[in-house]
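Example S7 (structure tokens).
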């Protein structure tokens, strides 16, 4: 049995490479990008709305949020002045609902972006 080397611990992802596995750098990069897509947080916007005239509504994005696989949620207001760590995305609504500028009643709802379908190492390519 080999003696463990504390200065170079094994990777928690260590496993023998199957003989049929493609170990090329391109194949590894594709696996990494596929992994990123698979574990990406769900992105949502908190949209505020109010009635500006009888039967006429206005709306705007007030915050962006990320919902993680473990259930935790991070929300950041558009102005960057408020950030929240919440248990559910719906809890963000309470922080963005109420009165605005005196008399307007503002409601809020969540709008979810579609799931990511691709990832890339280049910022311009991923956008």
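Recovered sequence:
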């Amino acid at each position: 049995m080999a003696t463990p080397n504390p200065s170079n611990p094994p990777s928690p992802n260590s496993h023998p490479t199957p003989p049929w596995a493609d170990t090329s750098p391109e194949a590894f990069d594709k696996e990494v990008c596929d992994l990123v897509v698979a574990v990406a947080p769900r992105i949502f916007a908190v949209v505020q709305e109010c009635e500006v005239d009888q039967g006429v509504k206005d709306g705007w994005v007030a915050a962006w949020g990320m919902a993680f696989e473990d259930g935790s949620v991070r929300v950041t207001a558009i102005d960057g002045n408020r950030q929240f760590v919440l248990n559910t995305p719906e809890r963000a609504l309470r922080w963005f609902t109420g009165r605005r500028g005196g008399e307007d009643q503002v409601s809020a709802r969540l709008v979810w972006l579609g799931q990511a379908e691709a990832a890339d190492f280049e910022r311009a390519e991923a956008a």
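Notes on this example. The chain has two helices and six strands.
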